[in-house]
């Protein structure tokens, strides 16, 4: 219930988060939240504009005594990832997020929470509304479509922003100060194939992989989480090798930036192999579950008889498909040689759709090094082209190169240490795609930094925001605003 959320401290932030989460805001369908934000700025009597692509900018003058400080931009994105559990009835296009408090965490009932990046948006809204929080000249930049292409950041023209410092509020660990991020590129393989009539002697099976955690395909790619598309392919490959299994349909994964949690396949096998197939699949399923028991305790693999499909995939195409998905890298490709424990380059096999004579495989490749990103993208392209697929690169966006000599970083580190009993923050680049790299193309002189509260399970229905961490983060924000350096 929103009432228990609104009672949390800091109330200024949580109330704005509750207001925001009442507005549907899927990526590429942000019209309502854009209007919501414009109405908010105008209600406060502040200069409010919408640019050509839908980004909203709200300007607020410096508070008394802060006029000589450097002007700042506070930035967060308006859209959120929409994921829900299979048994959750929810319409993201019309419903607001149903939230509740569970101990020290705010969660949503069966859906993503929208803390990524709603807590950042709510932070900025609370500061814009306040008449007591000290800050320099402030531009609030609310971008659109961060989660499915970063088109808001890409479409923001140079010269529109006047700030010297940009505070990006899209980091998900409260002890981390972000100074760099990965770029990304979508790798999509497609091809058509001939369907064959299913022979009468075959019977149908439905194979279901579910119960995986899923999660952020950048920040969690190194954790060893299960990928439903890879696990499904393992089952299909084995079924074909041992029993001549034939594929009719596959529907695996969902969003490009989410580790796939579920996959379903409709297949056919010779009726004579029914008992042996069921036994083999059960044995393999138990083996896989044992391998993943630590990271994926809720993994389920269900093999059940179903109506025999009318059509199956051409045999030669099927062999190439299963081998290419087996060969395609999923996970970490290279660790950074320069920054300890940072994933440099990775890939997520995010989506596999096989139906009605058409194959589509979608991957998101990330890297903080442009040449390494292209190297892995070409590796995937070669893998899928060997099976007759056409491969397209799209949605290419740059990374954000770390600047360890940043002026705002020099301000923030001692503030963090003072507020946290001498504890040092983790100054690092991340393997997520932040908008700073894109914004920096048109604003190369702007000093940028990223930080935020603890958010776990982003991009999945397990997403949750820590209340105590949000309180810690809020104090940090207020101290930063009060200590922005003076103009040169």
UniProtKB/TrEMBL annotation:
Key words, A-Z: Hydrolase
Ranges of residues in domain Peptidase M20 dimerisation: 208-294
Pfam annotation, one family: Peptidase_M20
Q: InterPro entries per the record?
A: Peptidase_M20, Peptidase_M20_dimer, Peptidase_M20C
**Name the UniProt record assigns to this protein:** Aminoacyl-histidine dipeptidase
GN (gene name): pepD
